[in-house]
Amino acid sequence: MPRAKPKKPPRQMYLKTCNACGEEHETHKPKASRCDRCISENRRINYKSCISCGVKFPAPFGDEYNCPSCAEAHGIGQAELTHEQREAIKAEETLARWKNKVAILEAKLDERSNAKPKRTRKMATKVKKSAVGVAWLELVSRDGQVSSLSQLHEREIDEETKLRLAMAFTRLRLKGYALDALAQLCPVQLMSLDEDKAITSLPLIENPNPPTPQELAEIELGLR
Length: 224
What we know:
The protein has 224 residues and is mainly α. 47% of the residues lie in helices and 6% in strands. It is elongated. The model is unreliable at 198-205 (pLDDT under 50).
């Protein structure tokens, strides 16, 4: 009689936690890292760096901060934070927010510096050869330094024109426009724009309750 084949012992089953979805499952594979469903759906394991030790660990839920070892050492859950970790994350978020704000401001400044100011026109060849044009280019080339202002006195232009040239340059420079953009502008037209912005008169302030002679005396004596 043929001998009966011995029966295979039942497979040993292991209770595992899937590193892809975080659900518990039974498997006969002792080193299984994913459940059958995640394997069939080709769901990958997401990894995060532990904020305590920096080691990468599976993060199926996405809100974990600590690896299992560090969470156990701190006596907290993986999605929980110690006070020191919370302060460190807050500082990093603040720094990232300020860096983003600086990047936005720098982009705006770059855009403005490379752009041509509104309501302006380029300098014509005739203006370039004039005393005003040469003085403007000299002022721009030295970025408004005192030495360039002193050179303006040697040009054949009156004191009022010199002052208006300096004011027009300073106004546009403070707005962030680049020197290359300012060198192409017509100084005559810029000075005409400044005339519209000038304050010709200031209203007087009237005191509805003028001080009495006694109060004036107290003010002079330093009693008020």
